[in-house]
Amino acid sequence: MKERVKTWILALLVLSSLVESYYLIYRLPGSDSAVMSENLYVKTDNMGPEEKVENLLYPDKMIIHMGEDKHTLFYPSSTFYNLIINRIKGRTFESFQRRSVDDFDWNKIRKENPGIELSFGAGIPVTLLQRVMQLSPDSLFAGESINRIWIYNVKNDSKAHAIFFSTRGDIVYEAAKADLTVQDVQQHVDFGKNWTPYTTANGDYYVPSDKLSLVQVEIPSGLYTIEQMQSNLFFDTSSTRYIREKDGSEIYTDSKRSLQVDQEQNWMSYSDPAALPAGESTPAKDALEAVDFVNQHGGWNGTYRLAAAEDESQDQLPIGDGGKERRVSFQQYYGSYPYGSYPILNRPQLKFGVIHLELQKGTVSSYERSLLYLNESQAVKKVAELSGGETLLSQLAQISKTSPVQDLTPAYIPSLKGEKLQLVPVWKVTLRDGSVLTLN
Predict the structure, then answer these.
(1) pTM recorded for the entire structure
(2) How far apart are CA 139 and CA 285, in angstroms?
(3) Would you state the pLDDT for residue 211?
(4) For the chain, which residues make up each domain, given as ranges?
(5) What is the C-alpha separation between 109 and 119, in angstroms, rounded?
(6) Strand extents, DSSP E, 157-231
(7) Across the strands, what pairs with 171?
(8) Dihedral sign (CA 131, 132, 133, 139)
(9) How confident is the model over 306-343, as pLDDT tens digits?
(10) Helix or strand or coil: residue 77?
(11) Across-strand partners of 431?
């Protein structure tokens, strides 16, 4: 009888030990993302490969002006975009002359002169632009940031004109010496002759005369684990402790740094307020530091573009005085030849498609990104169409009654359907008051 009791007690202890081990492994705070399903677990600590800053610097769109008020647009990764941008990268631009933006009749140039206009969104520092273009700037031009480059021909003029627009808005720089002939520019412009025509009222945005074809995609997705992120961000993960906030978010901290995870949004926010300043700070240096930081703390899980490097206190990209906090953002793009590549919108319903960093005096103090990753090899794609012509013009006219339209660009809205991420094409409409709407 005693032996039977001992046997039952021993079996009960073994069973209790197994149950306790299960809860330790699978029910520790923050482990939910690691055990959602077998295919959601990633063993490596890296979220993606390292990236060179040169691969993150490219125009968000290319506008081709063909004269007679005819225009078309090429987007990243499309055939003619790649061809033209690679040729321009091989040309030299020298002897920059500073001029007022009011010295030019841009409406006339846009309508009458064949040319190529490169848009860089919020802007890119000249010292970074030098990494992808052959520029020889003087000290004044080197301190600027550029949001547009316009290369065009003038009738009866034997040389091409190359204008670089400062983000300050009132100044442009003209390259007196440009290694581009009139024939080079005309050849690039001719690529757009058989492409979808676009119309514009004032050059702020362009509307296609017909529907625009994009790829709609459904991609299996997974989650990087909190353990992986701790390993990427903390020197000693054994010293971190766990705090659960009232709103359900989870915080891991080693008393100096903190990692906050929003399980509903699959979004992480890392903060290091005690980071030691690196010294002098400029938009270019901070952008380079931000790229290095992402390379060292996770990597790049997709195709990205430097979208902004701006002071928190200002709307425009500044020269910077080295003492303010600067926010550097990288926009994720999706797409490929021949349809082009377009930005993935970060939405309140699903935070995805961007990487944000904040720097103080050249040192990263915060780092935000999604924990979602995509299994591109199993993507299911189909062609979808965005509205164009009179239909789109009518929609935009209705929207403009609230605030003038500032920009129009194709984009993707992300949404989660179980363990799959859907990317649905939309028109992203940016209004002059800063608000953003979508049309599909």
Answers:
(1) 0.85
(2) 16
(3) 95
(4) 53-206
(5) 16
(6) 161-166, 171-178, 198-199, 207-208, 212-223
(7) 100
(8) negative
(9) 998 877 644 433 334 445 789 999 999 999 777 899 99
(10) coil
(11) 405
